[in-house]
Description:
Strand order of the largest sheet: 4-3-2-5-6-9-7
Shape: elongated
Structural class: alpha/beta
CATH class of the largest domain: Alpha Beta
Helix content: 25-40%
CATH architecture of the largest domain: 3-Layer(aba) Sandwich
Number of helices: 12
CATH topology of the largest domain: Rossmann fold
Order of helices and strands: HEHEHEHEHEHEHHEEEHHHH
Largest sheet: 7 strands, mixed
Mean pLDDT: 94
Number of domains: 2
Strand content: 15-25%
Distance between the termini: 56 Å
Amino acid sequence: MKYSEIREILNSHGIQLTKSLGQNFLHDANQLEKIAAAARLTPEDQVLEIGPGLGPLTELLIRSNAKVLAVELDSRLIPILSERFQGIENFELRHGDGVVLMKEDRDWQEWKLVANLPYSVASVMLVDAALNPRCFKRIVVTLQWEVVNRIAAAAGTEDYGLLSLLLQLRYNVLDHFKIKRGAFFPPPDVDSGVITLERRSEELLSAELRPLFVKIVKLGFSQRRKMMKKLLKSQWSETVLTDAFQRLGLSDDIRAEKVTLEQFALLTQIINSTL
C-alpha cells in the first residue's frame, strides 16, 4: 500500500488519524516484506496482528496462508478492513483493545505475534505477553528504536534494564533493524525499528518462580544508581543476601545493571530456597 493510497483511503472516509492511538501507518513495501519474512509463517501457523490499520502488513500475512487474527481498536477502520479482506477464509477481524487482550490469560503457545504496535503501550503489551505462562512462540514487532535497544540490551550496557530482563527471561533476541521515519504516515516523532524474538526452548525459571524473579528485578532497578544488595535488603535479610551474592560471585557494591540475566535467575532460585 503506497503513501498516496493511504491518503486517498483516509480522505475518502473522512478519517483524521488520532495521535493518542499511536497511528503511524508503515507503508514502505520493502520494510513490510522484511517484517513478514521475519515471522517465518507457514500454512500451519496462527498469527495475531494488533493494530492492522489499513492492512498493508495484514495482506502479506494472509498470503502466507497462516490463520490471521487482526485486532483493531479504532472502530472507524473496521469497515475498511472488513471490505478489503471480505471472504478470505484464513482471516478474522475483531474490534478490540490489544492491551486488554495481552492481560488476559490465554493460550498463545502455538501463535506468533506480528504487529506494528502502538508505541505508547507497546512495552506494557510485550511484558504482559512474555509473562503469560503460555506465551507466543515468536514475536516480530515494530517499536520505538529506543525500546528495541532496551529489549535487546546486554548486562553492563546503558540500555540494559527491567525491559531487557522481563523479555529475555522468556525469549531469545534473534534480530533487530531500524526503519526511517519517512516509511510511516504520518512520520512518527521518534526513530523506529523491528525486533524478532523467539521463545526459549528451555525455560530459565519455572512458572512458579517467575513472580519472584520479577519482584527481585523490579526492586534491583528501582533506584538504578544504588547498590542492588542495599535495595534487596528491604525484602530479605543480610544473611540470605550475603550467602546468595557470595555463591554467585557478586560484589556487595554491584549495581543491578551489571548483573546478567542468568545471575538474576540463579539469585531467584537461591532466595526461593530460603523461603
